[in-house]
């Protein structure tokens, strides 16, 4: 299998909703992950705090290998290509979408990109809880932006009363049914919603970057989300699992891990990434010495964890009847060359 594709997370939202604040929060709490940042104006990204180590053209190199660049839509694919270059060592790319293009166009650009180094990592729409009602009156297109989002971050909760917050939340949920919603202030979302921490290798003294990272934990990562871990020793039924995936509960934002589909999967290990409506499988041999079993982490907000686990348990194969149709459905989402169909669900 080719090396892991780098997720590209899009952050959109109306003027002043808190996108840069959230981006800075993600940068400050990135848990060792190397983040590539694409903005159309990097004046306000907290570059100073990240120890700028050099500047090349429109790209700023941040501490610990993070990169920051400024582009317009036409330059985006090329810039993503640069950031995804293996030598850059980036784990995730965050694009501050507003001002670059319409969120829907950016999502299309991402999922249609034939850049082999990247994959779609979701669209987070930041909403200003204090200004939403007024802004929506002036900009009805905001409703479209919410509908295309994979995650709504209802920010500035500190600026409204509980009653006002509940009302805005209700309106957003009505406009974007089924889209997971997190209530935050100052963009304090847990980075693990978007990317995985990098396992740390430690040699000798703490670096400056380590020290700076530890400083920033005063602000709690309190935006409530749920995470469910599911493991199964028995293979899953491809058909039942696809049924689960295609009708997954509202609020489920991200699923990652791998599946054992038993003899149906010709004993391969099926890696799975979903974000919002985007689904992608990859296939590899089981690593030597690792048990064959399904291991999944499911992340979101506002779903019933016990019900989710029950629904996954109902996906166990139970017998070894061949399930060719189920496998064909899985293969539609397989991330292998010439598999243009896999993104059909989101596009
Ligand atoms: N009270 C409060 N202020 C916030 C919160 N989040 C952001 N702000 C402030 O709101 C202002 C706008 O935040 P930004 O992060 O710059 O918003 P943005 O969406 O990046 O703005 P543009 O790039 O201009 O569209 C800044 O002064 C932030 O400090 C919050 O949750 N509560």
Automatic annotation (TrEMBL):
InterPro entries: CobW-likC_sf (IPR036627), CobW-like_C (IPR011629), CobW/HypB/UreG_nucleotide-bd (IPR003495), P-loop_NTPase (IPR027417), Zinc-reg_GTPase_activator (IPR051316)
GO cellular-component term (any): cytoplasm
Entries under SMART domains matching the protein: CobW_C
Coiled coil: none
GO molecular function: hydrolase activity; nucleotide binding
Pfam family, one: cobW
Keywords of this entry: Chaperone, Hydrolase, Nucleotide-binding
Catalytic activity: GTP + H2O = GDP + phosphate + H(+)
Residue span(s) of domain CobW C-terminal: 225-316
Sequence similarity: Belongs to the SIMIBI class G3E GTPase family. ZNG1 subfamily.
Identification of the protein by name: GTPase, G3E family
Protein source organism: Amycolatopsis saalfeldensis
């Amino acid at each position: 299998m080719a090396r892991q594709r780098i997720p590209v997370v899009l952050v959109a939202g109306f003027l002043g909703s808190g996108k840069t604040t959230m981006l800075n929060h993600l940068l400050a709490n990135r848990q060792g992950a190397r983040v590539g940042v694409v903005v159309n104006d990097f004046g306000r990204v907290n570059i100073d705090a990240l120890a700028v180590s050099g500047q090349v053209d429109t790209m700023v190199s941040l501490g610990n290998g993070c990169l920051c660049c400024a582009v317009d839509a036409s330059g985006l694919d090329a810039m993503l290509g640069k950031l995804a270059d293996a030598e850059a060592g980036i784990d995730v790319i965050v694009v501050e979408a507003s001002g670059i293009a319409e969120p829907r166009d950016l999502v299309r650009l991402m999922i249609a990109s034939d850049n082999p180094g990247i994959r779609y990592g979701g669209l987070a729409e930041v909403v200003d809880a204090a200004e939403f009602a007024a802004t929506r009156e002036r900009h009805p297109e905001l409703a479209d932006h919410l509908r295309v989002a994979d995650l709504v971050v209802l920010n500035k909760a500190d600026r409204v009363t509980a009653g006002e917050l509940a009302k805005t939340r209700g309106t957003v949920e009505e406009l974007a049914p089924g889209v997971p919603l997190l209530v935050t202030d100052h963009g304090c979302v847990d980075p693990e919603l978007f990317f995985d921490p990098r396992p740390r290798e430690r040699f000798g003294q703490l670096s400056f970057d380590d020290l700076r990272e530890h400083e920033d934990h005063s602000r709690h990562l309190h935006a409530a989300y749920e995470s469910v871990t599911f493991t199964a020793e028995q293979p899953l039924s491809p058909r039942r699992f696809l049924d689960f995936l295609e009708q997954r509960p509202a609020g489920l934002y991200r699923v990652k891990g791998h599946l054992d589909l038993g003899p149906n999967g010709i004993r391969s290990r099926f890696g799975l990434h979903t974000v919002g409506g985007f689904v992608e499988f990859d296939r590899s041999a089981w690593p030597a010495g690792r048990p064959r079993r399904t291991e999944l982490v499911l992340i979101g907000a506002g779903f019933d964890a016990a019900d989710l686990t029950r629904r996954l348990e109902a996906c166990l194969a139970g017998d070894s009847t061949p399930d060719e149709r189920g496998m064909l459905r899985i293969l539609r989402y397989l991330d292998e060359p010439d598999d243009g169909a896999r993104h059909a669900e989101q596009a």
